[in-house]
């Protein structure tokens, strides 16, 4: 099982506190992500974006959540046999989890390099698979963790705090 964990500077303590003692979510949502269904991929991200907008989350934070969630949804649709998006909203952050069954990520560090892609021809013909999904998720999330087993499950989760003005 390979693991990747990145926390943006300044969020180490908040992320550690969240992991050690996760609070109960105010709102939780789930959304299935079918394999290669690019008409459905993105619906979970849109629902989360609309929820956060109704909750009055800062538009810049909302944009970051939408970008990271959309990129992850597309990755699950493009590279797996399908999966699930789980979103947990707390008063000061959102925790989004993606779980899928598929080939796994053989080398997570390599997959984090912009432009690296294992997308098949069909995915590329549809305009996806440019190798920017994981780097964009990392750029927009305050914390990102990926655990993947070759020829098995991949779990990607990220945290975005609402008080971030970047």
Task: Explain the overall architecture.
This protein has about 170 residues and is of the alpha+beta class. Helix content is about 35%, strand content about 25%. It contains 6 helices and 6 strands. It has a 6-stranded antiparallel sheet, covered by helices on one side. A hairpin with a 3-residue loop joins strand 3 (about 85-90) and strand 4. The model has no long low-confidence stretch (mean pLDDT about 95).
Short description:
By secondary structure, the chain is α+β, with helices and mostly antiparallel strands.
Shape descriptor: globular
pLDDT below 50 for ≥5 consecutive residues: which ranges?
none
Helix content: 25-40%
Order of helices and strands: EHEHHEEHHHEE
Strand percentage, roughly?
25-35%
Which structural class do the helices and strands define? alpha+beta
Strand arrangement, largest sheet? 1-5-6-4-3-2
Please give the alpha-carbon distance between the first and last residues: 33 Å
Give average pLDDT, whole number.
94
Main sheet specs: 6 strands, antiparallel
What is the CA-atom radius of gyration, in angstroms? 15 Å
